[in-house]
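forwarding from the other thread:

> can someone predict this with manganese (II) ion?

sure thing
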Amino acid sequence: MQPDKEFAMDAARDFLADTAVFRLSGDSEARPEPKRERRRYRTIWISDIHLGTKGCNADMLIDFLDSTDSETMYLVGDIIDGWRLKKRFYWPAEHNDVVWRILKRAKRGTRIVYIPGNHDEMFRQFTGLDFGGVEIRRKAIHDTADGKRLLVLHGDEFDAVMLAHRWLAHLGDMAYELLMGLNRWVNAVRRRLELPYWSLSKMAKHKVKNAVEFISHFEEVVAEQAGKRGVDGVVCGHIHTAEIREIEGIDYYNDGDWVEGCTALVEHFDGRMEILHWAEEMALRDAVAEARAAA
Ligand SMILES: [Mn+2]
């Protein structure tokens, strides 16, 4: 092993030990994987999980991971919220279970590419290395089954270009945290009333004109930059807004988040792309099971 790689591995081990990420619940997950038929996809993209924060919807993500499989899986950044963890340590068993499931996927043969984002940028120093079958990369090129070249990156690299909107992003951050707190309350009540999961900020985002402008501007900037790099399309995360949209001949894909939207981007075996809204998928599955039980 090269000395700098050795150094990086030591640093990685120190970081993981510091944040206690991999030593909290022994050597396996708290909740075993159920034996369930899995939907198979060619590719899965997920991002903005924010493990280590209360906002993370780990339960729903675990359900998603237990229900799907793919040849390749991209983790498109903000998987672990390193900055938040440094401020206040928060790491429940379900967050460990997410990490275990991803590592087990790699062991079973799924190619896993991890592209750290701005909240887990401490992992960017390990770009080029592989940990337990997980490739850490700054960005990636994905070739779809129908011959399209897609640039895959987190998306914060365009924050500088979005400078004009930065004050809004800041304001947005505070409002967002407030909203997330409210979102948890609303859904705790809804759960008790046996009502389905409902995304408050998803609604708010679409109601607030500025936020809508910010999002569409971000999408245009990302698509334009991707076009300059000569690819057919781009996959990113970062703004927690799932989308499939063509912008001036460039395919723009955003896989959303697992804080409130709970979405994943998938590629079918024929190259067709789709956004899965997991709360809806779970509700549908429950309705089918209920109907079967009643029949
Ligand atoms: Mn981000």
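The first helix runs from residue 3 to 18. thats all i got for now
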